[in-house]
Design goal:
about 400 residues, Rossmann fold, 2 domains
Length: about 400
């Protein structure tokens, strides 16, 4: 089955290259370091190297506590972080600077994976969340590189898809040396698709501390604005119009929209009267302001009175609400939060978040919260307390890494 998968992947090569060129129109980073996509590298190496793969922005941010912990516990090792997207690579640079190596992970061709492993020779591989690549994992086994699936999650929807491809994916899951699952439900589904050595370690995202300076800057921005702010955070295709159309035309509050993907900034700008990259403070008459900057989510959460989390009004699985909770933002989510099911259940049960059935309900809920300062205060406190209560995943991940390294 893996041989057929590889043949199909080779046939798709022209489309993969065309996609890089196409996406490079809006995000030039896709046209950089193209040889790395094929396992050819010209960057520094280290004798003792730990490799972490974070496919894009969310995974790179989620990995931050583990990266810091590994750097402190194993100062004689260098860390390499790979990604797949241009936005992910930019996020890695913003978060870590020169403190670690960064590169693109190659496409899942056997020779590309082999080239990657022979060049860097990592002592340990850490894949964030659900990154399962059959040829890569086969080459890791051949090169005797233990691989851990970190902060692992598997929704019921994804599990059904994996079961349909069990002949291809079950050996890949079985090759993992360790799996650190976010929840007991995730662990059960991961075992069912063939993962061994699964333990429940919790969610690393609860250990991410929001940037205090950005939070303070956001609060100061809102104070100078002298208006209430409803944040539409990490919105996906079609959600902006859905939510904005649900807002009353005479709404006094500012609608601050931050799309999930930078390539959509110009598209969403057509719905706004101003954008942060050109006008840091919107005019008093502006109804919609576009947050078109990278690496400033803590600023945006600090600037808002209520946060509506995107990716949850279309069937896309939702976006990370934990960052908003840690920042003390009252949270509203839509019906489709299956990628963050446990965190959503915990937040709703704690009174830190409200889950609604559609965009219109979300906007009505946000407007209702603007009029209820006491409820906003309670939700803010509940969110911070929830995050504090669920910290500790980093230490459990670090212990698993030490076991694999036999330290």
């Amino acid at each position: 089955m893996r041989a057929l998968y590889t043949v199909l992947l080779r046939l798709a090569l022209p489309f993969l290259l065309a996609r890089l060129w196409w996406r490079g129109r809006a995000e030039p980073g896709y046209r950089d370091a193209v040889t790395e996509r094929f396992g050819i590298y010209r960057i520094d190496r280290a004798e003792r190297l730990l490799w972490i793969h974070a496919v894009s922005v969310g995974e790179a941010r989620a990995a931050e506590p583990l990266v810091r912990a590994l750097g402190g516990a194993l100062p004689d090792h260098r860390i390499l972080m790979t990604c797949t997207t241009a936005a992910g690579r930019e996020t890695i640079k913003q978060l870590y600077g020169e403190s670690l190596l960064s590169a693109y992970l190659p496409y899942d061709f056997p020779e590309a994976a082999q080239g990657f492993l022979q060049y860097f020779r990592p002592r340990l591989g850490i894949l964030m969340e659900t990154e399962i690549w059959p040829n890569l994992l086969e080459q890791c086994a051949r090169h005797r590189v233990p691989v851990m699936l970190a902060n692992a999650r598997l929704s019921e929807k994804s599990a059904r898809g994996y079961r349909r491809w069990r002949a291809l994916l079950r050996p890949a899951f079985a090759s993992l040396a360790a799996v650190c699952a976010q929840s007991a439900a995730d662990a059960q589904r991961l075992r069912a698709v063939g993962a061994p050595a699964v333990e429940v370690t919790g969610n690393l995202k609860f250990d991410v501390e929001p940037d205090a300076a950005q939070l303070a800057a956001g609060a100061a921005w809102r104070s100078a604005l002298a208006r209430r702010v409803i944040l539409l955070a990490s919105t996906r295709e079609g959600e902006e119009r859905m939510l904005l159309d649900a807002a009353p035309a005479d709404l006094a509050a500012l609608l601050l929209v931050v799309p999930r993907h930078p390539r959509r900034f110009d598209e969403v700008a057509e719905l706004a009267q101003s954008r942060r990259s050109r006008q840091s403070t919107p005019a008093s008459a502006d109804r919609v302001h576009l947050g078109d900057s990278m690496g400033e989510m803590a600023f945006y959460y600090g600037a808002c009175d209520v946060a509506i989390i995107g990716g949850s009004f279309a069937p896309l699985g939702g976006q990370n609400l934990i960052e908003a909770l840690a920042a003390g933002a009252p949270v509203i989510v839509g019906p489709h939060m299956y990628n963050f099911a446990q965190a959503t259940e915990l937040a709703v049960a704690a009174g830190a978040a409200i889950q609604v059935p559609d965009a219109a309900s979300a906007m009505r809920g946000a407007i209702g919260l603007l009029a209820n300062e006491e409820q906003r205060r309670r939700m803010s406190e509940a969110g911070r307390n929830l995050c504090a209560a669920h910290r500790g995943a980093t230490a459990r991940h670090l212990a698993a890494c030490r076991r694999l390294l036999q330290l």
